[in-house]
Model the fold of this input.
Amino acid sequence: MALISRLSRRSLQQSLSGQFTRPSSTLIIDPKDHKETKILTDVIEDLSMSVIGGPTSYDPQEYDRRRQELVKYVPASQDELPHRRMSDSFDSALIPLGSDKRLRDRYATHLGGVRIGRLLEDMDIFAVHLVFKHTLLPMIPEHIKQSPFSIVTALVDRIFLHGKLNFDQDIKMSGHVTWVGRSSAESTLVLEQQRENGTWEQITEASFVLVARDPLNTKGAVLNPLKVETDAEKELFQIGHKNMLKRKETAKDSLFKHPPSEHEKEIIHDFFIQTVDHSALSFKSRIKPEKSVWMEDAKLKNLVVCQPENRNRFNKIFGGFIMRQAFELAWGNAYIFCRERPYTVYMDDISFEAPVEVGNLLYFNSQISFVHQHYIQVRVSAEVLDPKTGSLKVTNVFHYTFELRGGMPRNIIPKTYHEAMMYLNSRRHFLNSLQQPSA
Done:
């Protein structure tokens, strides 16, 4: 156990204190002329009205027919579209937990807090709404009120959580588009909760990467370019651009493409040396150290049948629903592993690799994958399960960091090579979570 603790501490960057740094509050602009704050249900209604074939009834054939009519309005290039500013997409919405007691039941936890999974659903809807607000298509006739775009979530870049979430106080969500490429955009969100003295305290910030697709969600579509004028807008745009470059660099350095670094190889080899039974003179015989758990024994799984009620406005399974299911499974696994309540502090690199269809069997597999001091890293994969063949296809991957505020957790020990790679990958995510974001 001493060797594992020493390696864990030594492997972390010396410049990091092991504590999470609260990000800067300068994550979005705040237009002074924006007076209206909608109720979140109004935002959902507006979004439903923006999409022909929305979720009023489940009829895939009728949906495809109506969406097909919009194909001719998809722009061929960004040159056809006017520039938009960040203030054009700015919006805010209220989750009225303070006044709507019936609504509280959907958000309250049995511990008196707020269900993070519900907020993830809301943030996903709101991020899509902001991109629709950003779009302006002059070629669409006035009598057609709906957009030909399908805006879908590609990635949740990072979400920090700090402060206390109370189930009986209003939550305000604000944000706007902060970066635009050709067919992708970054929506940055800030969540605040109203305190008893009437002030608003920032509790969460998040960055979503969304992509524009054609009406039938078969190929990419171009978005309005983003025009930045003020110094604040230029700074936010540069942050979004740096985030995009960082994601590409991280993908290049993936363990799926390159072997571990020399230091990472040393970590895995020391795990093996510590757990091998030296008296047996065999590489097969392994001994688990005290106060530790094999990775294979720290899993929790779930299967969800994807029903029509869980679909989004494009007849695919709603990404927020998938995020909620994955998060609550990860939290439950951390609770079981730690034997005390875990607190959520960070999520990053939540990827949407493939759409999930209505009727799919969605198989969730959560794994305790890294432990350092009082922090727990949990990885969740979501896979579509073919009941006829038993084959699995990965659709989503999630990474969560939880904190213990009581005792110290048991350590986690990889036994196989693929578990070792998962351990190293989660270690990288943990190192990333300790660093303050670019803002």
Residues 91 and 206 are 15 Å apart (CA to CA). The two ends are 38 Å apart (CA to CA).
